[in-house]
Amino acid sequence: MKLVITMEQLNKRIAYLYNLRKTKIENILARYDFSELDYKILTEIWFHDHMSIDELEKNITLNKEIVFMVLKNLEERGYLIVEDDHVAISSLLKSEYRKIRKEINDMDERISKNISKNEYNQLIDSLDILIESYGE
Questions:
Q1: What is 96-119 written as a DSSP string?
Q2: Residues 6+ apart with CB under 8 A from 100
């Protein structure tokens, strides 16, 4: 007997999984005294060190005042260096960010051990098919 799942049920599961992971990541960030918004901005800067503030604002599509407020706070805490309208990561951030990424990656690895590589690949393939179907 084949189990039939509706798109609504699938969407609920995807949303639930997303929210579970998001909550776990928020808990990790809280231990380092970072908000989700801090992390979003820090990640963008991590991958584009020495980027202009204008470029940062475009990449993360946030209000200019919010970006400025977060940057100012992160700079005051020693995580960023802001000079000539460009943002660079500090050595303190390099250390903290690596720890955060390691915790998130370790969490993901622990959780992914509950599913076989074949099941994981089938899941990804199925989701890709659904994503492509929405793009038609």
A1: HHHHHHHHHHHHHHHHHTTS-HHH
A2: 28, 29, 32, 34, 39
CB 113 within 8 A of CB 78: no
Encoded tokens for 128 = 């890709």
Residue 117 φ/ψ, nearest 5 degrees:
-60, -40
Question: Could you read off the pLDDT of 84-117 as tens digits, one per residue?
Answer: 889 999 999 999 999 999 999 999 999 888 899 8
The pLDDT value recorded for residue 63 is 84
Tokens of 67: 């970006």
Distances in Å between the alpha carbon of 18 and those of 83, 124, 132, 133?
36, 15, 20, 21
Confidence band of 45 (pLDDT split at 50, 70, 90): very high
| pTM metric for this prediction | 0.81
CB within 8 Å of 56: residues ≥ 6 apart: 41, 44, 45, 48, 67, 71, 87
Cα 133 off chain centre by: 25
